[in-house]
Design goal:
By secondary structure, the chain is an alpha+beta fold. Helices cover about 70% and strands about 15% of the residues. It is rod-shaped.
Length: about 210
């Protein structure tokens, strides 16, 4: 009777030990699983950091290229503005110079009759006994000629030279005794140049061609 009870207890004890061993193995397996699950999580920050650095580098390169493009655009714009300003300045200087030249020419042309009359008055006063009047007329005439000289105005003096319609207007015809054929034998009214341009053509008498 006692032997049978002892035999019954042995299988039960063995089974309990087996169950305990299975539970122990399950517990160990359960403890290892979190470690395996945490392993990739520990590597994730490094991988994320590497990806963020690459993105930051790409963004910096993109911003640098954009900045270079804008700098080139602004430089080209500044160069165009500078070129436009230089062209405007040159045009303005040219217009101002032309306006000054035209104004100087108009004033000089308008005063030529006064110069002619002063010259005639000095010639008429040459034989006058009134020395004061003669000196005064000569002084005014000299001052007038000085003003014209400053304006770069000079008389056309081509007496005895070949007639040139660029400088002279032939209003009378001379004789063969007055000079060579085709030459200016008398100046009836002086002509004047201002710089290299004719301010007033001379009125002349010309010996005809044979």
């Amino acid at each position: 009777m006692s032997r049978r009870r002892a035999d019954r207890k042995k299988p039960e004890t063995r089974k309990r030990k087996e169950n305990a061993m299975e539970e122990e193995m399950k517990r160990e397996a359960t403890e290892k699983e979190p470690e395996q699950e945490n392993a990739p999580a520990e590597n994730a920050p490094a991988e994320n950091a590497c990806g963020e650095e690459e993105q930051a580098a790409e963004k910096a390169d993109s911003q640098l290229e954009e900045a270079k493009s804008k700098a080139a655009e602004y430089l080209a714009m500044a160069q165009r503005v500078q070129a436009d300003f230089e062209n405007y300045r040159r045009r303005n200087e040219s217009v101002r110079a032309d306006a000054y030249a035209d104004g100087r020419k108009d004033v000089a042309a308008a005063m030529l009759p006064v110069l002619d009359n002063l010259e005639r008055a000095v010639a008429a006063a040459a034989d006058s006994p009134d020395e004061a009047m003669k000196s005064g007329m000569e002084l005014v005439f000299r001052q007038m000629k000085d003003v014209y000289q400053k304006l770069d105005v000079k008389p056309i003096d081509r007496l005895g030279e070949k007639f040139d319609p660029v400088y002279e207007n032939a209003v009378l015809q001379g004789t063969a005794e007055e000079g060579e054929p085709g030459t200016v034998c008398q100046v009836l009214q002086k002509g004047y140049m201002i710089g290299d341009k004719v301010l007033r053509h001379a009125m002349v008498k010309v010996v005809p061609e044979n």
